[in-house]
Amino acid sequence: MAGPRTARPLLTFSDGVFLRAGRPHRVLAGSLHYFRVHPDQWADRLRRLAALGLNTVDTYVPWNFHERVPGEVRFDGWRDLARFARLVQEQGLDLVVRPGPYICAEWDNGGLPAWLTGIPGMRLRTCHGPFLQAVGRWFDELIPRIAALQAGRGGPVVAVQIENEYGSHGDDHAYVRRVRDALVERGITELLYTADGPTPLMQDGGTVPGHLAAATLGSRPADAAALLRSRRPGEPFFCAEFWNGWFDHWGEKHHVRSAAGAAETVGEILDAGGSVNLYMAHGGTNFGLWAGANHDGEALRPTVTSYDSDAPIAEHGALTPKFHALREKLAAYRGPGTEIPAPPADPPLLAPRTLEVTRNAALLPALRAAAQPVRAPLPLSFEELGLARGLVLYAAEPLLPPGRQELTVTQLHDRAQVFVDGAPVAVLDRETASFTVPGRGARVRLELLVENQGRINYGPLLGQGKGILGGVRVERRLVHHWTMYRLPLDEWGPRHLARAVSAAPGDSRAGFATARLTVDEPADTFLALPGFGKGFVWVNDTLLGRYWEIGPQTTLYLPAPLLRGGENTLTVLELERFGDRLALCDRPRLGPPEEYVETFD
């Protein structure tokens, strides 16, 4: 990057038109999240964005990805935002950064750290003093780094978003202004803007006087343009998120949007004199346990591991029919003399094959062996156990009278497999759920394996805790004296995996299994687990993600950089039912499609 220099913002606007260095400009952007793409693939995916005909890249910055432990902020490796920005610049692209502190993005907890949202009394996204103080400490680390990457200092950053779709959440205007001030005080001098849904309610709640107001939408751009222009005469119409696809929840269909329909709406935005950001241009993957969840008012709706989002550039980098339809549309709106790079070939794939599975440790003995026990009179939440993601195995020995006894779990978040004396007896997935077990006038070993299926990333339940937050009752009597095993699967390294895999074997239907994959030259592939029920897969020592037979996705994208030449070890933690083999496929299987367009009716 070039050194500091004094300059006005590179991207400005006047009379309803964007100006770049004083010349009329149309922002043709696409979202690509560095945290959803392996760093070794950043350059390749950025080349594909340039070949789509875009001139700008848009990314969020997830706080919880960079500060997993309070006070330990990292910007290395997968978190090297500056390296990502340099690669953006090398492609001749501008960069828009959306630092939050809340990002939504279908990302775990909307990007907010669980150690923060778990503090009793914390009031998120408000002028609550402790929240603002925590944001200030985070911004002290983050914002000067973004400031150093600004166009005025020789970098690619031309715009920074103030908060994120705040008008869908609240109306604490003082808070949004405090976020704006925090950006400016720490060195942001490029264009600042807000982005909210295209309704009066959302625009009222999220915009800041004196800063560009943008819209996020999936349809009817002419209505959005009219609304914004009626309120902000002289500002350019900017669709800061055009949803040309959509994300998926477990147990639903795979949401798609036709190439023709997406291109038609982009054409409407551009015909209205607007600028656009494709959300997503390349979706990537919720590797590990970073997928978030929604709540529909009745039940949790956890997001799948894939974040393909039916984007024009597929999860593994392949160029889809939507890519070519949008490329053709965008080419007509680029400035004169700007040539679009030729589309690159699709990335290579491993040849399909099957892998023999070796069953190792049984489920419960393995999980007990993998963690030190924590004891308390009543169940502790994930937050009380200092656990952001993963599993907790809760164990107690209640005295049950003779006959069938009903036990009730209250405030369960999210899903529990119930075992009595080692045998499975129930699966619970509601906040208040009951099950019956045979009592014999003696104590039984009761175990509940509770899975955090993703923290809520949007809506009034943002920041909700995980685990058993109420208690377990036999009729009206609480069960006391609990032992808990905290299982942060996404933090496990070779030592943890080896300890779990080598625990007591058995005829259990679930537990740990391994497979060996030998490759001469690493390449991308898609991993299927036929016959398996629900669980997690590691590739060598990296947690690839979560799988679940209910779909819609039935393959996990395995990027080439996670493999090495020679032998690789795949480790499976199966929670319900082992299959007999793993399969490498030469195409993704994301489930039966369903046409989907998000609207604000």
From TrEMBL:
Residues 379-487 form the Beta-galactosidase 1-like first all-beta domain. Its EC number is 3.2.1.23. InterPro entries: B-gal_1-like (IPR026283), BetaGal1-like_ABD1 (IPR048912), BetaGal_gal-bd (IPR048913), Galactose-bd-like_sf (IPR008979), GH (IPR017853), Gly_Hdrlase_35_cat (IPR031330), Glyco_hydro_35_CS (IPR019801), Glycoside_Hdrlase_35 (IPR001944). Coiled coil: none annotated. It is an enzyme of class 3 (hydrolase). Residues 512-568 form the Beta-galactosidase galactose-binding domain. The keyword Hydrolase applies. It holds the Pfam family BetaGal_ABD_1. GO terms for molecular function: beta-galactosidase activity. It catalyses: Hydrolysis of terminal non-reducing beta-D-galactose residues in beta-D-galactosides. The active site is at residues 165, 241. The keyword Methyltransferase does not apply. Keywords: Glycosidase, Hydrolase. GO terms for biological process: carbohydrate metabolic process. Residues 18-331 form the Glycoside hydrolase 35 catalytic domain. Belongs to the glycosyl hydrolase 35 family. This is Beta-galactosidase. It comes from Streptomyces mexicanus.
